[in-house]
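Human: I would love a firmer grasp of how sequence relates to backbone shape in proteins. Take your time, and here it is.
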Amino acid sequence: MATPCAMAALVMVLFLQSVTAGGINQTSRYQTCMTTPTSCTSFNLVSSQLTGTMPSELGTLTRLTAMNLHFNQLTGTMPSELGALTSLVYMRLLYNQLSGTLPSELGRLTRLIAMDFDNNQLMGTVPSELGNLMSVTWMDLDNNRLVSSLPSELGKLPSIVVMNLAVNQLTGTVPSELGALTQITGMWLHFNQLTGSLPSELGALNRLTHMYLCNNTGLCGDIPAGLTLDTNATQCASRATVGTRLGSACPSPPQPVPPPSDSPTGAPTSAPPTNAPAGIISNPDGISGDQPLLENWFRKRDVARKKAFPQKYSWFHKQEKQDEAM
């Protein structure tokens, strides 16, 4: 079995061979990393025509402080072993073709200052573990395919200055915990599917000068007092809230449908529901509607009928037993 040192050297050789194959020879530049990979502290291969996937053995370069692999053609998923690079300060993988989910193990990189993964094809949720990045000042995940809601744990980042999660498929409301990001100057959430009103806590962010929310059609309600939105939002056609309903009242939530009223004997007096949007069924009485509500209505009706006509229902019960026995 290869030692971690030998494995790390192999990783460097494979990467540098790929670079050389692209017409850019970086071998002399990274001679130290190739000969003594455990001493390698910087990995800068920007615009080097790198292709293929990121090997998990990159996690053996434990002294690495900078991993700059942006503007290449790297594909595949981001290995979870990158979470072992606890000395990492700069991690820039923007403008590649990385896919798959963000590893939750990245939350171990507590020395990380810059996390820049924009313009890839990353999917899945934003890991709540990213709230453990106590040193991060720049987090850029825009223009990916991230889904689900914003984790409230992002409000625990004491040093964050720029948070860019624009151009994804994020849903849900803006967490009130983001109002604790007292150092933040830029928060870009435009072109998502966020809904609801903005939390009043955002009004306390007195350093926030660039906030873009455009094209979240579900956002509505008043803009919190004290919250300053960028009036020169070029990403939003010069309007930071265009494509939203901010400034207009949020629609009232749909009211629950009351259950059918019962007569004193327990029999429903109104007709069963017929206009429910899902679970449509047909029944011998020629009525269609939502299955759970219909089943409840017919159950109450049958109980009342059995009380009113015990002999008739006793006969039906005997017939059912005979049919089952045949």
